[in-house]
Design brief:
Radius of gyration: 39 Å
Structural class: mainly alpha
Number of strands: 4
Strand content: 5-15%
Shape: rod-shaped
Number of helices: 7
Order of helices and strands: HHHEHHEEHHE
Length: about 290
Amino acid sequence: MRERIIDDGRGVLKRIGDAIARAHARSVSAEMHSGFADLRGRHPMDRRDGNDHKGHDQQRQQSLASARRELAVLMGDTSPKYSTVSGRLDAVGRPSSFQSVVAAIDANPQLVRWTAVYAQRNAELLMARLRPYPDVRLSAGWRHFNDTGDDAVRLGISIPIPVFDQNQGNIISAEQSLEKTRAEREANRAALIVLAGRAYDTLQGALRELAILRDSTIPKSHEAADAIFEGYGQGRFSLLEVLDAQASVAQARLREQEAQQNFHIAVATIEGLVGNPFALARESAR
């Protein structure tokens, strides 16, 4: 989209150059018209440094090539194997509430893994607490007395009494390990919520900026630029005022493109945190 804005700006400059040429043509006499072509060829609007344009084009091509390579790496390739990429940068929508984002964060894989870790620490604590309780040992046996020829059954029971070993060290260690796991999970969750909050605020800010730009700034800048361009043909405005008006239009459109980019980056960030597509109430692109 940025390249399209730049190309549109070049088209506007061509229109201004043509308007200047027509204004010069009307200002010279018919006798001097044959020499106007030479003068026009030296007009500041027609003097363009070809090397400068080639340098800008080269920079744009390099930036595009870098972006294509980064996208290919994200897709699992080392070099781009696609010809074009299409998408709707101007398609935006109203997000759901931030509370729904926070609720969805609990399903993030970074937090889900703590469930298994927490269960393991709980089991270790339970084992440490049960260890001081001794196991009851039962024994049974058969015995024959040679002197009398009698037979007998022997039964035995033993219960160890842990007077000195209460396993307190292992219990404390297991409790601290469980508490550490709980704290780490909460810290991880808080970090994810902070990231989601920043992305959500960026998304909301981009929507507000887009609303202002589309409803007011861009239409008014176009109207002003058209009026000044028409007035320039009538001699009511200077060339500098025409260029300033066109620059205002280009700046407004570039701000719109940047706001759209920030919006979609924020949506992608939230989707990465919740692990699911972020539901948006779609609006018609303007």
